Design the sequence.
């Protein structure tokens, strides 16, 4: 795996990284993810600025559980937050603003929040998602099993030809 992420916790599916806190960081313009968690448990991510990190986006959780993600500002033209086969996470009081920043072009098919793989029992609350570029959905759910996720008091401003919440394959009981 490349090592171009701002912060990388974890390395493989057979080792679990537990009980970490990422707080008050500024992670900007990395060629990889801003924060990338692999097989983590009980991680707190709070009061961070993530802006214009490329690859799979600003904040990416893969096979991670019980994360608490709160009071972060996530910006730029990439996906804001991805939960890939990640469950039982709480995401609250975050601002995801994926508005293009005057580069003269828009990046389509990006999402404020993307749930994929087997991602269940996640809670999203009191979050604002702005994705005004064309075909940029606020929350996009696709995977082999996306179920029992809860979204409360969330404001979504989707892009043109996009939905606030888009249910793709195998997304049910959300």
Sequence:
């Amino acid at each position: 795996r490349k090592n171009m992420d701002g912060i990388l916790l974890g390395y493989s599916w057979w080792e679990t990284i537990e009980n970490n806190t990422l707080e008050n960081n500024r992670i900007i313009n990395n060629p990889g993810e801003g924060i990338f968690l692999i097989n983590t448990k009980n991680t707190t991510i709070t009061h961070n600025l993530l802006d214009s990190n490329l690859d799979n986006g600003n904040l990416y959780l893969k096979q991670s559980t019980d994360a608490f993600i709160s009071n972060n500002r996530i910006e730029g033209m990439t996906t804001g937050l991805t939960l890939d086969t990640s469950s039982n996470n709480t995401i609250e009081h975050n601002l995801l603003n994926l508005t293009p920043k005057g580069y003269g072009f828009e990046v389509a098919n990006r999402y404020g929040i993307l749930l994929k793989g087997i991602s269940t029992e996640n809670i999203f609350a009191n979050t604002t998602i702005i994705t005004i570029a064309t075909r940029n959905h606020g929350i996009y759910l696709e995977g082999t099993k996306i179920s029992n996720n809860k979204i409360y008091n969330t404001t979504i401003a989707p892009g043109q030809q996009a939905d606030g919440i888009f249910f793709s394959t195998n997304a049910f009981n959300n």
About this structure: The mean pLDDT is 87. The radius of gyration is 15 Å. Residues 77 and 103 are 10 Å apart (CA to CA).
